Amino acid sequence: MLTSIHDIRKIPWGIPVLLFLKGNNHCVNGIFSTKFLLLNQFDDDKKCVTARELKKCKVCCDEFVLIPTDVCISFDIGCICGFQVFPDTCVRKCEHPPIEFEDSICGNFAITSGFQEAVIWQSNFGDHQYGRVSIEVEKGEKIGLKLGAYNKFTSMVESYPLFETPSYAFDLSNYSSIAIFKSNLDSEVSGQYEIDLISQIEIN
Predict the structure, then answer these.
(1) Coil, strand, or helix at residue 48?
(2) Phi and psi dihedrals of 73, rounded to 5?
(3) Exposure pattern of 102-134 as b/e (b: 16+ CB <10 Å)?
(4) Which residues, 6+ apart, have CB-to-CB distance to 62 below 8 Å?
(5) Helix, strand or coil for residue 173?
């Protein structure tokens, strides 16, 4: 027998719940459960309930803690076969400091005749990264060389002349890659680079 909206309304506000839903239009043979939810809105006209999805805190090891997310889902009451509440489960917003670590990347670069750039760093790291990029030219002219930082949101290149200073600090969170550019395609240039990184990983 399917759960009615009257049964759902008995669930206390702020208490985590699992909803058991029917699948393939067969309640008995195709039941599956949702993730942990907080019910937050009823619509009697549309006969549906809206719930906020919860996720487990990855840091709180001494107790089972659920964190409210920004994901809200609406369920048709006719799809709900049953539910289970967890009145003793803690629900709260956890703000744990991010994990921070340092790293250093170094290597050689070369831009031969006919080529314009050499990529020295790229990343798809989603959290915050900060770095200082240092360039030492060993062969070729430094005049006309630039650092080019590709903005990950616009794909535009932001340029920084290397003849003014051989070192730049970046908030790498905003960039997908960094390259060395030369203005004279017929020239050759080579040298070394070093990137000192500070990275932060958000826990939840």
Answers:
(1) strand
(2) -130, 140
(3) eeeeeeebebeeeeeebebbebeeeebbbbebe
(4) none
(5) helix
Q: Tell me the C-alpha distance between 63 and 90, whole Å.
A: 8
Which spans in 49-171 are helix H? Answer: none
Q: pTM, whole model, 2 decimals?
A: 0.59
DSSP class of 37? E
Closest CA to 57 of 14, 9, 92, 97: 92
At residue 146, the pLDDT reads 94
Nearest to 81 by CA among 46, 32, 12: 32
Averaged confidence pLDDT in the chain:
87
pLDDT confidence of residue 31: 78
**C-alpha to C-alpha distance for 26 and 28, rounded to whole angstroms:** 6
Question: What per-residue confidence (pLDDT) applies to 21?
Answer: 87
Task: Using only the alpha carbons of the chain, give its radius of gyration.
Answer: 27
